[in-house]
Amino acid sequence: MxxxxxxxxxxxxxxxxxxxxxxxxxxxxxVLVLMMLDLLSTSGKILAAPGNGQGELWTxxxxxxxxxxARFLPYSVLLATIIALxxxxxxSEVIAMKAAGLSAHQVLAPLLLTAAGVSAISFAFNEVxxxxxxxxxxxxEANDFGAMPEESGVRANVYFTEGNDVLTAASLWGTGxxxxxxxxxxxxxxxxxxxxxxxxxxxxxxxxxGWRLEQVERFDVATVDTTRLDSLxxxxxxxxxxxxxxxxxxxxxxxxxxxxSIMAYEExxxxxxxxxxxxxxxxxxxxxxxxxxxxxxxxxxxxxxxxQLFLRAIIAMALGFAYFVIDNAALAMGSFGGYPPFxxxxxxxxxxxxxxxxxxxxxxx
Length: 365
Description:
Keywords: Cell membrane, Membrane, Transmembrane, Transmembrane helix. By secondary structure, this protein is of the alpha+beta class. It has 2 domains: 9-144 and 274-364, no CATH class; 155-249, no CATH class. The protein has helices at residues 9-48, 54-90, 93-99, 104-142, 240-246, 255-267, 273-295, 309-335, 341-364, and strands at 155-162, 165-173, 180-189, 195-206, 211-220, 225-234. Strands 1-2-3-4-5-6 form a 6-stranded antiparallel β-sheet. Strand 3 and strand 4 form a beta hairpin. Helix 2 (54-90) packs antiparallel against helix 4 and helix 6 (255-267) packs antiparallel against helix 7.
């Protein structure tokens, strides 16, 4: 029996069902509460846009909920692990399983198998739903929740440079010479990056070469004068191909499109550490759900009457949240080049895998 991680089909199904119900319950509670708080702070901005009403509020909810689900699913697995294991411990079910000859790993095996399934579902959900919802929501927010263009490929808060000069846009859509920008700002700078003039425009389109700004408000720093122009062509060296290459947002791309963007960046001699770190994290992030039962396992063992059950639950929660803190810190370091991309994405996972195994083996095995 010690070599079989699933010695009882009935027990495996019982623990898996118990675990799944609690994961769903915790995720529903977290998403509901956080969505309500989010709406309280955002509904005013949504309704402030002309023509927006209740329908746009529901649209925001449908776009925001996938992000909340993806972000807080691992937390839900952690909390579900602690609640399930504490309940089993209090009801002496863990003692009964160990008395039947099951090891600590065999008790946790159904939970780990369930968590692995949750990780696979999370990965697929991120690829199919979350990336699209994130792209749409970012572009909508950049447009101040106004009407969005019907074209696909909308990107928000893009930033381009041409020498010392800078071109920014709140949103961008289209491909090739049909690229359009909205909420455009052009900064012309001299030596030492000193600002010479600034031009703001409602929209911009490709002028072959350069980009034609429409309804321009131009500010001259030297004379402190503001003038209004119908149009102005800027950034003549900025091509559509370069824009398509530079306006890459890892949060809005799946694994395959992001990998292709990374290859294109490397071919052009661009730095790819940040993109590669986030590409690797698209695998390690969902897999964090698999780690939660192991980190929360300390709550399953020890005598419930010893008075240490609450302390064990606190330790389990601390281990789980410490993982998320270190994971975010490592990813940030990887984005700035402090860690190699692979190490930034995977080191926290393997570190806490070893920590969880060490705690489990030293205390129970």
